[in-house]
Design a protein that fits this description.
Belongs to the ABC transporter superfamily. Helix content is about 35%, strand content about 30%. It folds into two domains: about 210 residues, 3-Layer(aba) Sandwich (Rossmann fold); about 60 residues. By secondary structure, the protein is of the alpha/beta class. It contains ten helices and 14 strands. It binds adenosine-5'-diphosphate (ADP).
C-alpha cells in the first residue's frame, strides 16, 4: 500500500517552541489538506517530511522507504513546492525548467526535452514558455513551481500555502492542476485557507500549536458537529455579552447585523436555530477548543 505514515513526530526548536508534538498521520494517495493557523507547525512538518530538517523523535515511512533514515531515497520520489519559491526572473520558463531537469539528473537530451514540453503543457504555460519568469503573475509562478516539482514524476507532492495571493481564477486553475496530480499521487496541501481544503481534499487534518486536533474525511468531520451548532442574528452591541455567555465559534457581519454561530449540546435559547456545520465551523470550533 502506497501511504505516507507519520508516527509520533516531535520537534522542539532551540528557542523552546514545540513546533511538533507527537504528530501521527496516515496519508493515502489523493489530496490531503493540512489545515492550521499561522504558526501551527505546518511548514515544520513539511520540511521534516522533505528531510530538509531533522525531527527530535518519531518516524516517517513512504511505502518501503524509511524517510528519516534514507533521505536520498525519499528525494528521488519527492516533489516539493516550498512557501518561498524563488525563480530566476531573467530566464524563460522553458530554460529554467530545462536547467532544473538537468539538476534533477535527467541527462538524456531527448528525454529531458520531452519531459519539459509535457510539463509546460500540463501546467498550461506552454504558450508563454519563451517569456521571462520575471513577468509572470503569481499564479503563473505557482504553476511553474508545480512543473518543477513534478520533474521526477514524484510519488509524493507537497505544496506549502500555495494559493496565498492568487486571484479566484488563478486559484481555481491551480486547484484543478493539483486535483489532476492527486489522482495517482499523494498530494499534501498545507494551508490556512479553509476553502482550499473544502474544495479539494478527500482527507484532512487540522493542526494547531504542533498538535493534531482532528483528522479524517472533511464530510465526516463536519457531521461531528451535527445537532450541536446554532445560529442567531443579534445586534452588534450584544456581541461581547454573547461571547461571555456562549461557546461562540464565529461571528460575522450581515447587512449591519451580527450573525453568530454557537456550539451547544442543548438548545441555547430563543432566536437560535439549528444549522448544518460547514468546514469553517469545524475549523473554528477546533481552534477555539484547543
Ligand atoms: P506554520 O507553517 O503552520 O505557519 P511553522 O512550522 O512555520 O508553522 O512554525 C511553527 C512554530 O515554530 C511557530 O511558533 C514558529 O514561530 C516556530 N518556528 C518555526 N521555525 C523556527 C525556527 N527555525 N526556529 C525557531 N522557531 C521556529
Amino acid at each position: 500500500m502506497q501511504e505516507l505514515i507519520i508516527s509520533n513526530l516531535s520537534k522542539t526548536y532551540k528557542n523552546g517552541v514545540k513546533a511538533l508534538q507527537d504528530i501521527s498521520l496516515q496519508i493515502p494517495i489523493g489530496m490531503y489538506g493540512l489545515l492550521g493557523p499561522n504558526g501551527a507547525g505546518k511548514s515544520t512538518l513539511m520540511r521534516t517530511i522533505a528531510t530538509l530538517q531533522a525531527a527530535d523523535s518519531g518516524s516517517i515511512t513512504l511505502g518501503g522507504i524509511d524517510v528519516l533514515a534514507q533521505p536520498n531515497e525519499l528525494k528521488k520520489v519527492l516533489g516539493y513546492l516550498p512557501q518561498q519559491f524563488g525563480v530566476y526572473p531573467a530566464l524563460s520558463a522553458e530554460l529554467l525548467l530545462n536547467h532544473l531537469a538537468v539538476l534533477k539528473g535527467i541527462l538524456n537530451n531527448k528525454e529531458r526535452k520531452e519531459m519539459v514540453q509535457a510539463l509546460l503543457h500540463k501546467v498550461n504555460l506552454y504558450e508563454v514558455r519563451k517569456q521571462k519568469l520575471g513577468g509572470f503573475s503569481g499564479g503563473m509562478k505557482q504553476r511553474f513551481g508545480i512543473a518543477q516539482a513534478l520533474l521526477n514524476n514524484p510519488r509524493l507532492l507537497m505544496v506549502d500555502e500555495p494559493t496565498a495571493g492568487l486571484d479566484p481564477v488563478e486559484r481555481n486553475r491551480f486547484y484543478n492542476l493539483l486535483s489532476e496530480v492527486g489522482e495517482n499521487t499523494i498530494v499534501i496541501l498545507s494551508t490556512h485557507i479553509v476553502d482550499d481544503v473544502k474544495e479539494l481534499c478527500s482527507r484532512m487534518a487540522i493542526i494547531n500549536k504542533g498538535k493534531v486536533l482532528v483528522q479524517g474525511n472533511p464530510v465526516q468531520i463536519m457531521e461531528n458537529l451535527q445537532g450541536r451548532l446554532y445560529e442567531k442574528m443579534i445586534h452588534k452591541n450584544e456581541l461581547e455579552q454573547y461571547k461571555k455567555e456562549y461557546q461562540l465559534i464565529s461571528d460575522r457581519l450581515y447587512l449591519g447585523n451580527q450573525i453568530v454561530h454557537v456550539l451547544s449540546d442543548t438548545h441555547p435559547g430563543p432566536g437560535f436555530k439549528l444549522i448544518d456545520a460547514n468546514l469553517e465551523d469545524v475549523y473554528m470550533s477546533q481552534i477555539f477548543n484547543a
